[in-house]
Amino acid sequence: MRAYRRGAHLYHDAITGSGGRQLNGLATPEMVAIIAKMIGQNPAEVGAAIAYADPDERVDINDVLHQFAWFRQQGMVKGEFDPAAMIDRRYIIPRP
C-alpha cells in the first residue's frame, strides 16, 4: 500500500496543478508516457483523457454511491443490493 500511495502522489504531482486543475508541467509527459505504455495506447490519447486522482487515494464515498445510482438508472446494473456494502472501509481513507 505504501508503494501504491507513493505512486499516487507521483501521478498527482505530475498531472495536477493548483486548485486541482490539470497541469502540463515538466513531469507530465513522462507520466503520460508511462501510462500509455502500460495500457497500450498512444500518449496523445492518454493525455487527452488524463483524470484527476486524489494524492492520498482518498475515496469520496458519496460520489461513488452517486455514480452507482447513475449506472443503475441507465440499466447498466442488474439485481438489487446495497452498493455501500461493496465498499470495504478497512482499506480506504474517506475523503471529506
Cα-based radius of gyration, to the nearest Å: 16 Å
Q: Hey, roughly how much beta strand do the residues contain?
A: under 5%
* Quaternary organisation: single chain
Number of distinct helices:
4
Distance between the terminal alpha carbons, to the nearest Å?
21 Å
The largest sheet, given as strand count, sense and whether it forms a barrel, is: none
Count of extended strands: 0
How many distinct domains?
A: 2
SSE topology string: HHHH
Kindly state the percentage of residues in helix.
40-55%
The averaged pLDDT comes out at 88
Shape verdict = globular
Structural class call reads mainly alpha
* Contiguous runs where pLDDT drops below 50 for at least 5 residues: none
Features:
96 residues; mainly alpha; 2 domains; 4 helices; 47% helix
Give an account of the 3D structure.
With 96 residues, the chain is mainly alpha-helical. The mean pLDDT is 88. The protein is built from 4 helices and no strands. The protein folds into 2 domains: 2-48, no CATH class; 61-91, no CATH class. Helix 1 packs across helix 2. Helices cover 47% and strands 0% of the residues.
How does the SSE layout of this entry go?
Blueprint: H1 2-15, H2 28-39, H3 43-48, H4 61-73
In short:
The protein is mainly α.
